[in-house]
Amino acid sequence: MTKSLALKVHDDAPAATPASARIKLSGVPDDRAMLRAAAELTRDLHAPNPRIYWTDMLLSAGIGYAALAATILAPSALLAVLAGAVAVLALYRASLFIHELTHVKHALLPNFRLGWNLLVGIPILVPSFTYEGVHNLHHARTRYGTVEDPEYLPLALMKPWTLPVFLLAAVLMPVAMLVRFAVLAPLSAVLPKLRRVVVAKYSGLKINPAFERRAPEGELRSQWFWQELGASVFSIALLALVATGVIPLRDFGIYLAVIAGVAVINQVRTLVAHLWENDGEPLTVTAQYLDSVNVPTPGFFAYLWAPIGLRYHALHHLLPSLPYHALNEAHRRLSDALEEASAYHKANYPTLRGLMHRLAASTMGAR
């Protein structure tokens, strides 16, 4: 079956585009052969493997917290820096399971959301309700790349100063989240007007400042309540322990620095997850795919900055429900089955550095 797909002529596929050239996204037709192949060749890959999820998450979190403790207790600055780097990378990997939680069917991973929130989400101040109900809008066909997309800004078309501001926001994220949960959460519980603002503006991991979130409904409402309560209790307790001297200010600063490091790496990855070249028009699925990025070339560095399958971000936009551990096999099948004229091959890029250079060059051209 795969070989028959490979022999199809893609009359409706976009013409080849140099990797450095800006792609005209509006009006790009769907590559129907690619979409059909993506559906047909991956039917057996959609079931998440609980053993992989739990083992990966627990090991990542365990290594991360052990390295955080080692950073605090390190006898020298060099050892502290080395342990801190390990803590950032391990907790970064553990934190990215929040992305999987927005797509997986929770009945297939019993208690994983609860376990992740208790072990990772609440301690690093990003409980899953901040992403669930937000990220799925980024995948909505009529929202992607528009003003209604919470996770999209046309960064490639914006001014050069937007990139350092984008990264600075990540540095300040831990402090902002402490304020959100230790101050705004309890105050908004008794002030309805403030609550509406907190829900709309300060309850979602987003990059589009114009996006306003709606109040949660159904199961998410219950999840939101308990997760926000847990994050609020944790944040208040943490600040109280610091204020009373139980937790030394130095140790608290290291904790904030590690979380900030996690946020900065994630922000850098976000910068290269898309080309950010859409000007606000609704796009076809193929155009959305072409505005997204795969970095399939194997390498140790890629596994550090884009773990949990995120180096296949364009493929993820084709198949959002595919578990992270299946993306490599899905990419192999589609690469073998689809000829070079397919749009599938046009979203593959070799390196993080090249993507950052492309984005920076685009912003310089937008001056």
UniProtKB/TrEMBL annotation:
Domain Fatty acid desaturase: 79-344
CDD domains associated with the record: Membrane-FADS-like (cd01060)
Residues that span the membrane, as ranges: 63-92, 112-131, 161-187, 229-247
Keyword Transmembrane in record: yes
GO CC annotation terms, alphabetical: membrane
One Pfam family from the record: FA_desaturase
GO MF term set: oxidoreductase activity, acting on paired donors, with oxidation of a pair of donors resulting in the reduction of molecular oxygen to two molecules of water
Keywords: Membrane, Transmembrane, Transmembrane helix
One example of a Gene Ontology biological process annotation: lipid biosynthetic process
InterPro entries named among the record's database cross-references: FA_desaturase_dom, Fatty_acid_desaturase
PANTHER family: DELTA(5) FATTY ACID DESATURASE C-RELATED (PTHR19353:SF19), FATTY ACID DESATURASE 2 (PTHR19353)
Protein name: Fatty acid desaturase
